[in-house]
Specification:
This protein is of the alpha/beta class and 357 residues long. The strands form three sheets. Strands 3-2-1-4-5-6-10 form a seven-stranded parallel β-sheet, with helices on both faces. Helix 1 links the parallel strand 1 and strand 2. Helix 9 packs across helix 11. The longest helix has 24 residues. The protein is globular. The N and C termini lie far apart (48 Å).
Length: 357
């Protein structure tokens, strides 16, 4: 049978739903009264980047349930799937910090490769047990990254189907996960879609990532590290725009396809750090009135640091009508404002990082 469009997102399982993008997606799925018949099961191991505080406002929402579990634990995944009987699975659970992957690559292999293999196996078995109509509407959305393509020279932007050339242990494990997803589709007919995203930013991001790290250090008037010459180019996508795209893909995307999600907000790291300095200065000047740009310090570049990433998102925009809504300067300013209003969340995130090294 063919799926019906838009697909029903009535019962949704989200792996990594207490992480940065995962928690934003859980909030997006439960954002309004029109989703009163929707239920979301949030499956997260609560490692250094997964915080229950990111979804604590949903604690009394009967539509949201939480299960603490390891994404590589097929038995626990099977239990969670049988508990919810989902029509949609968003797989976001992953190790994603490149610096951590350089220091501990085996952790990334376990979570990103073995974890995805466990998700695929349990999803395949579950869908195979469904009646034909329910199976036709079932879909797993696997969330990947632009980094699997490796560095992309200007003015080129990677297209769906371009060769992979990962540079870091992180991107190599995400590439391996993508290959597993495609293999399950080809071999077993498993209903899957792959979504490749550019760099995300916004509220509730792990404080060791570039933008929240600069905000924290800037507020504390500490040195702001910038790798190498700072001319590495990234496309910055607000997390809410990413989640809108994931929902559009789940509802209307073609099974077996890949979709690129990008905002075409390509900036050098030096530009981003400088703009953040100006926004923090505007919100809360330094004690001596000096601009925070003077705190920027060049540090030795990361090993294997890719120079430029860029995705062509025309397929997503053309076939599903998705467009980013948040302009970069606007989104960055709102991210700084959110940080200034959320000391408790940041304290909890920093405490978790300190205790999970």
């Amino acid at each position: 049978m063919q799926p019906e469009f838009p697909r029903p997102l009535g019962r949704v399982l989200v792996t990594g739903g207490c992480g940065f993008i995962g928690s934003a997606l859980v909030h997006r799925l439960l954002a309004n009264a029109a989703t009163s018949d929707r239920s979301v099961l949030n499956y997260d191991a609560l490692t250094y980047a997964g915080l229950p505080e990111s979804v604590e406002d949903l604690a009394t929402d009967p539509r949201h349930a939480f299960v603490q579990g390891d994404v590589a634990d097929a038995g626990a995944l099977t239990n969670a799937i049988q508990q919810l009987r989902p029509d949609t699975l968003f797989h976001l659970a992953a190790e994603s910090h490149v610096d951590r992957s350089i220091a501990a690559p085996q952790t990334f292999v376990r979570t990103n490769v073995q974890g995805t293999a466990a998700v695929l196996a349990t999803w395949r078995d579950y869908v195979g047990s469904l009646p034909s109509e329910a199976a036709a509407n079932a879909l797993m959305v696997h969330v990947s990254t632009d980094e699997v393509y490796g560095p992309v020279a200007a003015p080129h932007a990677s297209l769906e189907g371009d060769p992979y050339a990962p540079s870091s242990p992180y991107s190599a494990t995400k590439a391996a996960a993508d290959h597993l997803v495609r293999a399950y589709r080809t071999t077993y007919g498993t209903p899957v879609v792959i979504a490749h995203s550019t760099n995300n930013y916004g509220p509730r991001q792990c404080p060791e990532k570039l933008i929240p790290l600069v905000i924290e250090r800037g507020l504390a008037e500490q040195p702001l590290p910038l790798y190498g010459d700072g001319q590495q180019v990234r496309d910055w996508l607000h997390v809410d725009d990413h989640c809108d795209a994931l929902v559009a893909i789940a509802e209307r995307g073609a099974t077996g396809e890949s979709y690129h999600i990008g905002a075409s907000e390509r900036r050098t790291n030096a530009e981003v750090v400088g703009l953040l300095c100006d926004l923090i200065d505007e919100a809360t000047p330094t004690a001596d009135g000096r601009p925070r740009r003077e705190l920027i310090v060049r540090v030795e570049d990361r090993p294997g640091h890719d120079r430029r990433y860029a995705l062509n998102a025309d397929k997503l925009r053309g076939s599903l009508g998705w467009r980013p809504r948040v302009a970069f300067e606007e989104g960055l300013a709102s991210t700084v404002a959110w940080r200034l209003e959320n000391d408790a969340w940041v304290a909890a995130a920093l405490d978790r990082l300190a205790n999970c090294r």
